[in-house]
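Appendix B. One record, verbatim.
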Amino acid sequence: MSTSLETGGVVGGYRIESLLGRGGMAAVYLAEDSRLKRKVALKILSPELAADDAFRRRFVDESEQLAAVDHPNIIPVYEAGQDEGHLFIAMRYVDSTDLKELIASEGPLLPERAISIVAQVAGALDAAHAKGLVHRDVKPANVLVAVGSGGDGSDHAYLSDFGLTKRTQETSGLTKTGFLMGTIDYVAPEQISGSGVDGRTDQYALACVLFQCLTGRTPYPRDDDAAVLYSHLSEPPPSVTGTDPGLPPTIDAVLARGMAKERDDRYASCLEFARAARNALLSPSGEATVEPSAAATPDVPSAPSRPVIAAPALVEEPPPKRHGRRVALVVGAMVLALAAVASVLALLSGGGGGRTTLVALDANDGSTVSTLHDEAFSEHLWGILSIEDGDLWQATEDSLVRRDEKTGEILDTFPIEGTWESMTGGFGYVWIAHPFAPGETEIERMSPLSGNSKTIKVDGDPADLRAGNGSIWFLAEDGTLSKIDPVSMNVVDTYDTGAVTPGTAVPLAGFIWICECEVGRVAQFDPRTGEIVKELDLPEHGFVIGVDTTDPQNERVWLLDPEANTLTPIDPVTGEVGRAVGVGGAAITDAKVVGDSLWVASQTEVTRIDLPSLDQHVFPVPDGVSAGSVAPTPDGSIVWVANCGCPIEQ
C-alpha cells in the first residue's frame, strides 16, 4: 500500500486535491471534506506504520486525545481513522509556510520574532503535556507560521504533526518496527537511549529549534546521522554566541539548560524555558539587546518592542465603586474562570476597597507560607487572582499586575487605559471590554508579554466577555451574543439568545451557559443551532461560575449561591444538575478548579474540595484577611489568597 494518491481519489470521505508535502513516514494532501465541504490537510501514514497493529491503535487513540486539546497554537484534529488500509488523520488546513522554509528563505530571525514563535509553540506543548501527550518530533518543519496574521502584524504559529505522540508513561524510544520516533537534528538523548520520555523531551527539541531560529543552522551539523546522534548523547550544547557574537551571552546558558543531557537538569516546562529565553534575549525595555547581526535579514518584520512599564503611583483617593464587574482569567490549557466576583463583593459590602494583602497558604495543610502587603496598591486593587503560564496575575482598576507564582514578587505592571467592565484571558492574550458609547463596546486584546494591544468595536453594552470553545464571546446587555475570532479579531457570528437581563456567559463543551440573574434563570444556549436548549432555576442572588479543568471529567458549570453558601454542579453538555455542596461559614466569594481539586474562598476560610468525592479540607485564613479570591498553583503546592477589602461577616 503506497501513500501516493491520485488527484480525485477519496480516503475516509476526503477527496484528494493536491500533494502538500511528503516525508519518510507520511504524505500530506490538500483535500476536501465531502460531507462538510471544507478544506483539510489529510495526512496519510506510511504502509510500514499502518501495518503495525500496536502503532495503529495508539495513533487513533492519541489523535482522539489530541482533538480534546483546545489550544490556539495546535492544529485542530478533525478525525483519525482507517480506510482500505490507509491510516489517516484529517486536520485543519492552514495557509502558511513552515518555520524551516522561513529560516531557509530569510536567514536567522530577529530575537523578538524568534522568541515570539517559540513561546507560542511552548504553550501548545505544555497544553498537550497536561493531557499526558508528548509530541516527540518538534522541529521547524512541524511549526507552521501564518506570517503577519496575528491581527497586530505578528506571526501566528501552529504546532502540527502530532501523529508521533506517545503516552508519557511509555518508555521505549523505538517502535516495534524499529523507527526512531523523532528527527535526528532535534532528538533528545533519552529518545536515542530509549530511557523514557516526558514533556522535557519536547523542551530539548524546542531548544534546538530556537538555536536554529537564531543562527540559521541546526545545533549539531555533522557529516552523517551517527555523528549527529553521538553529539546529542555526548557533546555539550553548542554556543549561540559562537555563531552570532552580537547576541547576549545569557542566551547560551538558557539553551544549555534546555538542551541538558539529563531531563532533570532542564526547565520544569516548555513555557518556563521560553520565558527564560525571552528574558535573556530582551533587555528590560523589551528591545533586542543588540542590532541584528550581519547574517540576519534586515527587512524581516519583528514583534512590537516591549515598553518600559512603571508601577502605578499611589492613589490618594479610592476609585469609584463599580458593580457587576466580571473577570475570567484563562490559563493556557486550563480555564480558571471566575464569574461575578466583584458583584458578590458588592453584595456583601457595597463595594469598597482596603489594603492589598496577599497570603500564600500551603495547599496541603493550610499553613501560612508568606504574607505580602502592597501599599502601592492600597485602596486600588480588586483582589482578583489567577495563575497563567507560571505567573500570578492580579487585576486592578487600571492595571494588570504580573507576579512570581512562588514568591509573589511583582514582575510587570501593565496599565489599562479607560474604564473596563469585563475581562477574560485566553489564546495567549488578555481581553478587556471597555464601554465606548451607548450601545457600543470596545474590545481590547492585550499581549501579557509586551503590553501591546489592538481594539475592535462591537455592538451592545457589555454584560460579559469570555474565552472558550475556540472563540472569544461577548455578551451584551440586550442578550446579543457575538463570536469573535481570537486571531483575526473579526466578529464571525452574532446571535440573538433571547436571554433576559443577562449577567454572565460561560462557554463550555460547545455550549454557552447564560446567567439571567435578575429573573432567576440560567440558560443553556447552543450557538450551533442558535437556540436555548434548556433553562434551569437559579437561586436568588445566585451566579454562574464556569470552571474548566485539565480533566474533562471535572468540567462543570457551577451555580453559586452566596447566601446559602452552596455550589451546585451542572453537566455542561446534558444540563444534569448534581448535588449541592455546602461550603464555608461566610459567603462564597470565589471558586476555581485546578486538577482534581475545587478551591472555594468564603471570606474567613479557604476550602479544598476533592473531585469527584467532594471531600472537604477547610483552611482558615490569617486574622485580618477577608478572602476574596483564590489562585492555586498548577503543581498543587500553594494557594494564593487575596484580601477582598470587605468587612468579615461574623
